[in-house]
Write a structure and sequence with these properties.
Largest sheet of chain B: 6 strands, mixed
Number of strands of chain B: 12
Shape of chain A: globular
Number of helices of chain B: 0
Low-confidence stretches of chain B: none
Helix content of chain B: under 10%
Distance between the termini of chain A: 36 Å
Shape of chain B: globular
Radius of gyration of chain B: 13 Å
Oligomer: heterodimer
Helix content of chain A: under 10%
Strand content of chain B: over 45%
Largest sheet of chain A: 7 strands, mixed
Order of helices and strands of chain B: EEEEEEEEEEEE
């Protein structure tokens, strides 16, 4: 089945130790999004790629970066995770721009020790 | 700025009964889209229903329907014949001005 796959489901890292979360899609969608979702809160958009064009949200910390080497894959890099970065990270895709429904992965829950 | 407001953090409904989740929004865009997404515990978020703002007819998807009141900027979701599998967090979302804004969510509890 076509889908959005996030690996791993759970990630534990140490304070300050770089971590990378991955997302892949078999939907061949143009757009890939990364959201941060803290407990009992709405997802917060960090950035998105429209094809190769990177779009960063104004309030996304510099600590967060992303790479999209090809249509299928997108990575979220957290250079120096702090305790406040512990959250669920959601990857989503859409065909074309965002008025189209977004398809979400299962998420990666990140814990910081 | 676009805002989405969901004011009822938790709603309980008896199995087979109907529950309505409220959502109000604010946007200066004339062209926008509204969504309800469902996020079950520890599972992926999935689209429940989508409404184009330029359409007057309310969207329906099986047991899910919306009451879209454009002038009032209201977009409520009705779940009919509630089932145990409907238990989840429901997020109202607005797409406009090239960004998707989510509300804080409504937790729906289904009582057997």
């Amino acid at each position: 089945d076509a889908m959005v796959i996030q690996n791993p489901r759970y990630q534990v890292t140490q304070f300050g130790k770089p971590v990378t979360l991955s997302c892949s899609q078999t939907l061949n969608h143009n757009v890939m999004y990364w959201y941060q979702q803290k407990s009992s809160q709405a997802p917060k958009l960090l950035f998105h790629y429209y094809d190769k064009d990177f779009n960063n949200e104004a309030d996304t910390p510099d600590n967060f970066q992303s790479r999209r080497p090809n249509t299928s894959f997108c990575f979220l890099d957290i250079r120096s995770p702090g305790l406040g970065d512990a959250a669920m990270y959601l990857c989503a895709t859409s065909r074309g721009s965002g008025e189209q429904p977004q398809h979400f992965g299962d998420g990666t829950r990140l814990s910081i020790l | 700025a676009q805002t989405v407001t969901q004011s009822q953090p938790e709603m309980s409904v008896q199995e087979a009964e109907t529950v309505t989740l409220s959502c109000t929004y604010d946007t200066s865009e004339s062209d926008y889209y509204l969504f309800w997404y469902k996020q079950p515990p520890s599972r992926q978020m999935i689209l429940v229903i989508r409404q184009e703002a330029y359409k007057q007819q309310n969207a329906t998807e099986n047991r899910f329907s919306v009451n879209f009141q454009k002038a009032a900027k209201s977009f409520s979701l009705k779940i009919s014949d509630s089932q145990l599998g409907d238990a989840a967090m429901y997020f109202c979302a607005l797409w406009g001005n090239n960004r998707l804004a989510f509300g804080k969510g409504n937790q729906v509890v289904v009582i057997p």
